[in-house]
Amino acid sequence: MASIHKRPVASLRNITSRTLRREFKHAARALASVEGASSSKDTSSRAPAEVQERKSTKTLKVHPLWRETADQSQMKDFSTSSIKAASVGTAYSFSENSPNPLRIFGVPRSVEKEFNFLSKPCSVVRKATVDLVDLLDKSKDPKFSPRVVITGAPGSGKSFLLLQAISYCTAANWIVLSIPRGIELVNCSTPYTYDSRTQTFLQPTLSATLLRQLKETNHSALTDIKLTYPFTLEKAPPGAPDVGSPLVQLIDYGIREISVASFVLEAVLAEISSQTKYPFLLAVDDFQALYCQSQYRSPQFLPIEGYHLSVPRLLMEYASGARQIQNGALLGAVSLYHNSFRVGTELYEALNLDLSHGKRPDAYSKRSEILQHYSQGLQAFPTPSRLDIQEAAGIFDVWIKDRALHTTPSDQLFLSKYCESDGNAKEFVWRGLMSTLDS
């Protein structure tokens, strides 16, 4: 690929892939057909061959793909109608109206760094986005309760797909609980205490935080849902709401009484997952961290498995189908950039992953029966490893309209950055477009 960067982008003879060559030819014809800034100059000074070539390209009458989308200030927000087949390659901003799930739950660190370069958080609709939304719409059927994990090569855009699904469900009046940094559930960043009754390690502070975020994002729906089961716990502090009370009162009780927050979180999710009036999306990024050994230590300084922690264990029960979501879906996304939390053998085999997700397990690899139980029934949602020309053009347009590029935008710049990154979404932005900041 390095030889392509050194030569003009219009020359495609060095591109070995037939599919990539065909896409570049299509893009080159489209991008060359529009008059640039130099088109206003007098063509009399040009050589006859150059004038003839210019005339031949005008007959195509095709606009460059990276000029189709609107200005950043005029960009529309994600909505239920924005994610459709006709919107592929179009950029939409993540709504900043209340409730804003990105502000309340947060975003993955890599995505947060990318948002810092733009005036407002946004993303481009991909074909995978449309397919994922179709899958979520089907999950409203009680007979179809998908437990899906977004997979794909490093940098293919898995976290962005998850954020788009969260924004769509929020706009569609779903109840949403998002955990954008699943590693923080097991990296010993929050307090924990051992509970002899359940023989697990409770995470009361983390549970209270999730309850607070759940309430802030879905307050109206949680007020409408009524308690169907009493909250009973030995030696629980007084003040628990009675049956028939709004579910939000139980959440307030868990936030106020942190000592029982872990049990309240379990009861709240049970109530939400059993009702059918509001679809429920349980989204977890860094999903593979749940199936790894945690960085917590017991009083004897022995490592604690992830399924011995209250919050990861609760999520894994929903992932395995031990706890059912009657109306909605569980949606996860694996991350491949954390050496301490790689995709384990059990999850690798359950999702039937390829070599881009790590070393393939062999017959001698150790397997945990418990983790095999918690990973059964999970379905993989593969993300394309490469952006197509239309999707990459939408990203390029966002950076142009937002004036985030420090190099004069041109057809050659777009095609060269797309070629250098081999269409990988992360590489196209970080080593392609962001490299213009060094120029």
Describe the fold and architecture.
The chain has a domain of 248 residues. Helix content is 39%, strand content 10%. Strand 8 and strand 9 form a beta hairpin. Helix 8 runs antiparallel to helix 10. The two termini are 21 Å apart.
Order of helices and strands: HHHEHHEHEHEEEHHHHEEEHEHHEHHH
Describe the sheet with the most strands: 5 strands, parallel
Instruction: Report the radius of gyration as a whole number of Å.
Output: 25 Å
Strand content: 5-15%
Task: For the record, give the distance between the C-alpha atoms at the N and C termini, rounded to a whole number.
Answer: 21 Å
> What's the number of helices?
17
Strand order across the biggest sheet? 4-7-10-3-11
Helical content band = 25-40%
Mean pLDDT: 84
Organism: Serendipita vermifera MAFF 305830
GO molecular function, one term: structural constituent of ribosome
Subcellular location: Mitochondrion
Region (Disordered): 32-59
